[in-house]
Fold this sequence. Notes:
With about 325 residues, this protein is α/β, with parallel strands linked by helices. The protein is built from twelve helices and twelve strands.
Amino acid sequence: MKPAIYVTRLLPEVVMDRLREYFMVRVNPHDRVLTRKEIMKNAASCDILLCLLTDTIDGEIMDVIPNLLGISNYAVGYDNIDIKAANARKIPVCNTPGVLTETTADLTWALILSVSRRIVEADRYTRTGRFKGWAPLLMLGQDVYGKTLGIIGAGRIGRAVARRARGFNMRLLYHDQQRNSELEKDSGAIFCSLPDLLSAADFVSLHIPLHRDTVNYISAGELQTMKRSAFLINTSRGQIVDETALLRALQKKWIAGAALDVYYNEPALTPGLTACNNLVMVPHIGSASTETRTRMGLMAADNAVAIMENRKPAALVNPEIWDCRRSIRS
Ligand code: GLV
Ligand code: GLV
């Protein structure tokens, strides 16, 4: 008999087909996020859980799935999964790094250009019939070309964003816990402290993972350190930025603007945010291209198959437990 996989949301058809080759597949029948109770009930008899970044998976959920041999997350970020709890239960957890890097970097650039050149505002203006003719002072934004880009987080996505800056002849600064010679080599980025980056950059772009130490990484103090002409871009995780402080910064013009793909309590938005004209907002679509969502799904499927076949998955988040992982029922 094939092992059982529970998929918490319908994925692209080629991914579902791949999963059916190897698994008895059960999938969330609704076009919405499942409640915690529903996951507990529906996934109870599965061997592998394939979940999304919108599913919070903790020890209690792991415990109601007695045969759980592995968790495959359809995302590169895995802050939705309690890794400590998985380690304690010797459950391997996988993610989808690499395949969404360029797509997320593309979106970051779309946001940089949109917020600096007021694209979304200008679109609203045009489509509501307010465009009465070319005017010297109409919708003036700020140049991107030749400016300074500050990248926080020198991982795969941060580096991909940096590579794209070359065409815009930008000065590149970056901050991370340690220096990254690859980034310095391929983009000429200069390492600096967080305050130095914040006070010098015209665009500050966030590419760090969310964990206990990075919650509210950008808060009132950091926003006040930024230039009044600068823009903040967040395509990482909402809780990296204190959204209440950001709202104040946008209202009081501590910074020129911001562009967000992710939110503190998404999909809920801090009240007041939508009234800010100097804010571009998109609904967590960093990896949302047809090609990349398929690649992510196939990678999540391959990770699941590897666990079932006792092969170390390509993208194992907790390799330290692999050698003492739960074994397949005999
Ligand atoms: C998207 O936010 C991801 O982590 O894959
Ligand atoms: C703008 O449209 C210009 O021709 O300068």
